[in-house]
Amino acid sequence: MKSFFAIIILLLSISVFPQLTAAEYKVKSLEANSENGDFGTTFYGKDKIVFSSSRKNGISNKRWEGNDQPFLDLYIGNVESDGEITRVRPFSSAVNSKYHDAMVAFTPDLKEIYFTSNNYMGGKVRSSNLKIFRASLTSSGVRNNIMTLPINNDKFSTGHPFISKDGKKLYYISDMPGGMGGTDIYEVTINKGHYGAPKNLGPTVNSKYKEYTPYVDGDILYFSSNRPGGEGGFDIYMTKLDGSIEEPINLGKPMNSKGDDISFIIDKTTQRGYFSSNRRGGKGDDDIYSFKELTVNPICDQVVQGVIIDEVSGRPLSNAFATIYNSKGEKLRRIETLKNGEFYFKVECDATYKIEGDKFGYFQSDSTLVTNRQNAFENKVTLKLDEKEFVEVNGKEILNVRSIEFELNEANILESSYDELSKVARLMEKFPEMIVQFGSHTDSRGGDGYNMWLSQKRASSTVRYLIGIGVDSKRITGKGFGETKLVNKCSNGVKCTEVEHRQNKRTEFVVIKK
Predict the structure, then answer these.
(1) pLDDT of residue 270
(2) CA-CA distance, 432 to 425, in Å (whole number)?
């Protein structure tokens, strides 16, 4: 039996077992397979799939001498919920050529196609080596502006292109000099039509044997290899792109067989996908198989992208803390939020967590997170914290109000503190029997007498402002303490940081009677 995927790699120059076990899969052959070869599936949008086939009635009447079957054309079909591919029809007569068309990839916007060939650029075979080409696709399916990629070379082959979901990276195979084996997997960055230098994915992916058909799902790379230790010829493997797994994980049976198993793709939202195989029992030389991932992928992981906000104002809270607990209630990690209130955690797929937010002056809030099975999924979490009305500081009960700010060396209140003073007025109205004393404090820098004088002026200014917006003068007093009530060691002559001095430079609304 001659495998059809050999068409693409025919011109390319002729272990340790993994520690992790792959997920369980349910595999089935498709009704859409023909008596000839069908292989090399590629997702086209959300509900369609493109594949290569040598089935009869293709665009070319010629037959390939390698197996006396028609040349390969591209076909498109609808993806059904059970994995079947229906309404199979030619992808486009304008895209299919009189030569082989196989192993293609599309940009995320479906406006460009990448394909492997040695028959383009003038319609003649210009090199015995394969190359990757890029072309634009019009709304009518016409393939225009065909160009060879700068990674190509007449002295070696490139093929099996795959474009990342964001369109910023191209993965492919090549037997270029300096590799680790027969064919290795490489990546290049794509930036507005410009391509970076090829990067070999290294020994955690490539071997001294042959690696084919790369497919990337989040941070997981799936590929096929004929390295020793597999089920048969080419087996399907998976690993992490960051190189954190020393040996790729063989997907095992029933995904792999004694034959050649290649071209793995998966829809991470449904955990359904496709691969191609020339295993025994099929309809043709190569057939397309669908599969369902039944258990959790052992290297599947996700992230939590969260934010902590004030429940009333909706503003992000910096200097808050997020804590994550597992399903057993064990604390896994506690981190401080960024200035924009955001926090990030890495989590496992198909797991349950509790995420808790807290900040001084606020009540705690938590949320339960149940992750799905989608690799690299971003879980969005928003924790809303309700601000407390009172807090205890240094043994005193004070109103939970941020420190009032003044002009430098003056008693004039800055406009940025007007909202805080309005909050004081609201609390005084809410608790009509409450009596408070406003205290103004300075750090130890500057003369003792000056600090006392300035703090008293600021206390008087604040009380006058509050009375002016409706607070009963009998229920609020003000006092300047200067530097007589320091909360740390930073007295006269002691060297301290700016942060330590700022702790002393504060204002407080102390509750005398509630």
Answers:
(1) 92
(2) 11
pLDDT at 64: 46
What is the per-residue pLDDT for 230?
92
DSSP-derived secondary structure for 466-478: HHHTT--GGGEEE
Tell me the two tokens of residue 297. 């992928």
Pick out the chain residues at pLDDT < 70: 1-19, 57-71, 93-101, 118-128, 140-142
- Please tell me the predicted confidence (pLDDT) of residue 96: 54
Asked whether the beta carbons of 99 and 71 are under 8 A apart, the reply is yes
What's the confidence (pLDDT) of residue 186? Answer: 98
β-strand partners of 200: 186
Identify the CATH class of 301-385.
Answer: mainly beta
Q: The tokens of 76 are what? A: 């498109």
Q: Residue type at 222?
A: Y
Q: What CATH superfamily is the domain 390-513? A: OmpA-like domain (3.30.1330.60)
pLDDT confidence of residue 15 = 36
Nearest to 463 by CA among 491, 435, 430: 435
Which pLDDT score is estimated for 440?
97
Residue 101 carries which side chain, given as an amino acid letter? D
Cα 438 to Cα 326: distance, rounded to the nearest angstrom: 44
**d(C-alpha 61, C-alpha 222), whole Å:** 35
Amino acid at 340: N
CB contact set of 338 (below 8 Å; sequence gap of 6+): 318
Are residues 302 and 378 in contact, defined by beta-carbon separation less than 8 angstroms? yes
Q: Please say whether the structural domain 20-293 has been given the CATH code 3.40.50.10330.
A: no
